[in-house]
Design a protein that fits this description.
This protein has 397 residues and is α+β, with helices and mostly antiparallel strands. It is built from eleven helices and nine strands. The chain is globular and about 80 Å long. This is Acyl-CoA dehydrogenase family protein.
């Protein structure tokens, strides 16, 4: 740039000029998802959250399918074939509306559809993926159990062959997003061959999914228990291309990548609420944004928010290049969710007592992120993943 060239104006919404890294198609996808969320989620989500429900979830799923948001980074079978960065941008916009909406999309695409797409038979793919991509069938992913979260290798759900043919599944899964509205569940179980994944139609006799109530986080989201009592499945229900924990863990890594972006959406929403409030709320005769301590908070929040978005973008480019390692996903999930929670908490202090009101999104995002902090790997698990990668020493056991 020549000395006489005019610099672009400073943009408080994009202080680092990160949008310059995006292609026109990236921006178009981002704007499409942002517009859908502004129209179909933001006017209603505070009421959904207060009531602890997500009404019309099947209609929302079909609408998300219509804009290509379900399984969007997968190819074929009606999926959009979007880039990892484009999928990440969608996750950011969805979670800027609410973590529960992003969870609906993540579980559908990055867990249930991804498992079938990567490890399923052609028959399984043809049967389920087109309808899931269109939002006609909602999926869920059964790995976590009441007594086994961070240690899935110890799961008790088991499947046995009967006479070398059908499989009989028994067990319980817990904290399952989409469970009670799903038409298909990908369930992981112990077998004589090791841990295997099963594609389970939810109308199978012996399958039930009671919804979990009394949540104070992810309230605008369907969360269920899965109960499998002698569920009989044909031999073709097993995912044929994987045995062992590599299957579910690779699915989780894909979903965690979406969280790296999504958490920054919740942080951005809270930061924008605090910035707008600081510009207009007056105390001692002037806007509180004119006081040094408030400006220090806003500056620190902006730094961590946009560092997190840069990190997410970097990881997305690595995923698109086929170079993203699971440890790097742990790096992103650990940093971005932790910083997002801190941004929400700081934003709440700027809003003062108004910060606890559902008139503003801050407390809703903060409580949602407490769940995001835990699911798909707790803070401690991701710290240990990075610790092992850094030292070469395994501290898990």
């Amino acid at each position: 740039m020549s000395a006489s060239a005019k610099l672009p104006p400073f943009d408080a919404a994009d202080p680092l000029g990160i949008d310059d890294l995006l292609e026109p198609e990236d921006l178009a996808i981002r704007d499409t998802v942002r517009g859908w969320a502004a129209d179909r989620v933001l006017p209603y989500v505070a009421d959904w959250y207060e009531k602890g429900e997500l009404p019309g979830i099947r209609d929302l799923a079909r609408e998300l399918g219509a804009i290509g948001a379900l399984g969007m980074s997968l190819t074929g079978y009606g999926c959009a074939g979007a880039s990892a960065v484009q999928y990440g941008l969608a996750c950011l916009e969805l979670e800027a509306a609410d973590s529960g909406i992003r969870s609906l999309v993540s579980v559908q695409g990055s867990l249930a559809m991804y498992a079938i797409h990567r490890f399923g038979s052609e028959e399984q793919k043809q049967r389920w993926l087109p309808r899931m991509a269109a939002g006609e069938v909602i999926g869920c992913f059964g790995l976590t159990e009441p007594d086994h979260g961070s240690d899935p290798a110890s799961m008790r759900t088991h499947a046995k062959r009967e006479g070398g043919g059908d499989w009989i599944l028994n067990g319980r899964k817990m904290w399952i997003t989409n469970g009670s509205v799903a038409g298909v569940a990908v369930v992981w179980a112990q077998t004589e061959e090791g841990i295997r994944g099963f594609v389970v139609p939810t109308d199978s006799p012996g399958f039930s999914a009671p919804e979990i109530k009394h949540k104070w986080s992810l309230r605008a989201s369907v969360t269920s228990e899965l109960v499998l009592d002698d569920v009989r499945l044909p031999a073709g229900a097993v995912l044929p291309e994987v045995t062992g924990l590599r299957g579910p863990l690779s699915c989780l890594s894909h979903a965690r990548y979406g969280i790296v972006w999504g958490a920054m959406g919740a942080a951005r929403s809270s930061f924008e609420a605090a910035l707008d409030y600081a510009r207009t709320r007056e105390q001692f005769g002037r806007p509180i944004g004119g006081f040094q301590l408030t400006q220090a908070k806003l500056a620190d929040m902006a730094v961590e928010l946009h560092k997190g978005i840069l990190l997410a973008h970097h990881l997305g480019r690595r995923m698109d290049a086929g170079r993203l390692r699971p440890e790097q996903v742990s790096f992103g999930k650990l940093n971005n969710v932790r910083e997002a929670i801190e941004i929400c908490r700081t934003a709440r202090t700027i809003l003062g007592a108004n910060g606890i009101s559902l008139e503003y999104p801050v407390m809703r995002h903060a409580t949602n992120l407490e769940s995001v902090l835990t699911y798909e790997g707790t803070v401690e698990m991701h710290q240990l993943v990075l610790g092992k990668a850094l030292t070469g020493l395994d501290a898990f056991r």
